[in-house]
C-alpha cells in the first residue's frame, strides 16, 4: 500500500494529459499546505474527524468486489450502461453502446482527452479543503458520462462504487455532462462490508448543458466502519434541470458537501434527501444552492431520522446573487429523533442579494407524532407496528420525490429494515 | 339481547381537572345510541378514555362484549372490538390508506378482511382515496366517510362515533346518518356522540343519553331529542348546570 505523497500523486497521474497534470500538481500543493479541517470552521461544525490520512494507503489494483445486490438489480432491469469502481479503480465496464461516452476515466483520457477536458476535475476546487485537494492530487480513476447534444436516454446508467480492501483510501471521480437538449439518468451506489476499515473521498461533478435534464440518484450504503467525505459540484445551464436524490444509510461518518450553481437563466434544481442514522453513525450534509441566472428555481427537500446514538447534520444555504431576479427557492429539512441518545442539527441559511425573489425555508425536529400513533393504534396496530408505519410514512414523503421510483422502493425497504432492526435491538 | 358496551363508574381526570364523574352507559348489540350534551360536558373525553388515550387518568369499567378494556393498550381495545371514529381524524403524511388497510388486515388475521375492504370501498366510493395519504387533503365530509369506511372494514363490536356530524353541511349529515343505519347489525352496538340533534332527523336511535358536567343525567327514547331541539340543554337540566370551567388558572405557580 502506498502513502499519500508526491510519488503516489505522480503515479496516479502517470497518463495525465497536460491540463490534468497541471490541476493535479496544484492540488498536491494544497494537500501539503492544508491541515485537517477543524470543527471551529462553520462548514465542519459538529463533526469530529478522529483520523488522519496517514492511517490509510492507496492500492494499485482493486480488491475483490461484491456482486450487485439483488434488490438493486431487480430495480434496474434495463440499464443504459453500467460500471464499477472498486478501491478507486474502474472495473466491469459496460459502456452500453455509443449513444453516449461512458466508461473509465483513465481509459477515456487515453482515447478522448480533449472531449474530457472541459468537464474533468473542474468541479469542487482543490483549495476548498484537504479532502478536495487530496482527491485531485491522488485520484487515479473514475467514471465519466458525456451525453451528446440532442440525445435522450431513458434508462439509467449505473455506477457501483465499492471499497473492498481494508485500510485503503480511494478517490473515485464521477463526472457527468449532458449536452444541449439531452436527457440522462444515473444511479450511483456506494457500498462496503461492515468490517472493512476504509476512507473514501468521492468527487462528483455535473455539467448540465443548456436545456438538458440530468437525474442522479445516490444510494449511500457504506459499511459501518467506512468513512466517506464526498463533494459534489454541479453547474446547471440555461433552461436546464438537475434532479438529485440522495439516500444516506451507511458509514461511520458519511459527509456530502454539495454546491449547485444555477448559472443559466431559467435553470432549476430539485434536490431530495432521505437519511437515517443508527448506533454511532454521523451523517453530515452541507448543501449550497447558488442562484446566479434569471428565473431560476430550486427546491431542497430533506428528511432525516436518527436513532441509537447517531448524529445527523444538515446545513442548507440558499444564495441568491444580485442578478438572479425572479428566483424561486425553498428548502425543507425535517428530522425525526427516535431515541434519547440521538441528535440532529438543522441549520438553514439564506443569503439574498436580489430584491424580486420568492424564498423560504422550513426546519423541524422532534419525535414521532403522538396523535398519529394514537390514531393507528386505535385501528388495532400495536405500538411497534404503528411506529414502523409512521417511520415508513415519514421517509416516503421524500422517497416519492426521488428521480428513479424503483430505486426509491429498494431504499424504502432498507429503511424499513433498519428501523425494525433497531426496534428488535432496543435502540429505539 | 346481550350487551355490546357496558360502561360503569368511569371517572377520568386531566391533571387536576376531573372531567368524568362516574359514567354508566349500556349499549346492547343491534342498537344505536346517542350521547348528547353541551360543549365541555365530557363526551369526547369519554370517547378517548374508552379508546385508551393515555393523557387521562381513568378508573372504572368498560366491557366490550364482556371483555374488560380499561387498562389495556389502545390497540388491544381495538382488537377486543372497539372502534372510534374520530372527530378530527389526523393526517398521516406518507402513509396511504392502503398502507393502513394492509396493516389492519395483518393484525386481524381475518379471512374476510380483504373482501370487506373491497365491498366497503365500492359502497362508500372510497376507491380514489386509497392511494392517497390517510386523511391527507380530505374535506370534512370525506374524512368522515373515510372513518366510516375504516369502521366497516374493521368489523367492530362497538363503534363510537365522536361528533360524526360536526363540520358537515346538511347533505353530508344526511349521508353519514344513512351510513350508520346501513351499518346497523345484530353484531354491533353504536354510540354516536353529538352536540346537535340535527343528525337524529335522519336516523332512528334506540336510546339517547344526556351528559352534563361529566355525568349521564338522563337516558330515554328518541323523544328526548325533540325536547332538546325545542328548549336546549338548559331546560332539561336546570339552570344550575352549564359548561364547566376548568378549575385551573394558567398563572398558578
Report the count of strand segments of chain B.
12
- Show unreliable segments of chain A: none
Unreliable stretches of chain B (pLDDT < 50, length at least 5) are: 239-253
- Mean pLDDT of chain B, nearest integer? 89
Order of helices and strands of chain B: EEEHEEHEEHHEHEHEEEH
Radius of gyration of chain A: 21 Å
The total count of strands of chain A amounts to 21
- Strand % of chain B is 25-35%
Specify the overall morphology of chain B.
globular
According to CATH, what is the topology of the domain at 3-92 and 156-237 in chain B? Rossmann fold
Task: Count the domains of chain A.
Answer: 1
How would you describe what is shown here?
The complex is a heterodimer of chains A (428) and B (253). In chain A, a hairpin with a 2-residue loop joins β1 and β2. Chain A has one domain. With 428 residues, chain A is α/β, with parallel strands linked by helices. In chain A, the strands form 2 sheets. In chain A, strands 3, 4, 6, 7, 9, 10, 12, 14, 16, 18 and 20 form an 11-stranded mixed β-sheet that branches. The longest helix of chain A has 21 residues, at 405-425. Chain A has helices spanning 6-12, 18-33, 70-75, 105-116, 130-138, 370-378, 383-399, 405-425; strands spanning 81-86, 89-94, 101-104, 142-147, 157-163, 169-170, 173-178, 183-192, 198-200, 203-208, 213-221, 226-236, 241-248, 253-262, 268-277, 282-291, 297-306, 311-320, 328-337, 343-352, 358-366. With 253 residues, chain B is of the alpha/beta class. Chain B has a domain at 3-92 and 156-237: 3-Layer(aba) Sandwich (Rossmann fold), CATH 3.40.50.300. In chain B, 32% of the residues lie in helices and 29% in strands. Chain B has 7 helices and 12 strands. Chain B has helices spanning 43-51, 74-79, 97-108, 113-123, 140-154, 170-183, 223-237, and strands at 3-14, 17-28, 32-36, 57-64, 67-68, 82-85, 92-96, 133-134, 158-162, 189-194, 207-212, 215-220. Chain B has a 6-stranded mixed β-sheet with strand order 6-9-10-3-11-12, sandwiched between helices. A 4-stranded antiparallel β-sheet of chain B has the order 2-1-4-5, covered by helices on one side. In chain B, β9, α6 and β10 form a beta-alpha-beta unit. Chain B is globular. The relative contact order of chain B is 0.19. Mean pLDDT of chain B is 89; it is low at 239-253. The A-B interface holds A 369, 371-372, 374-383, 385-386, 389-390, 392-397, 400 and B 51-53, 73-75, 77-79, 83-84, 86, 89-90, 92-95, 99-100, 103-104, 107-108, 133-134, 150, 154.
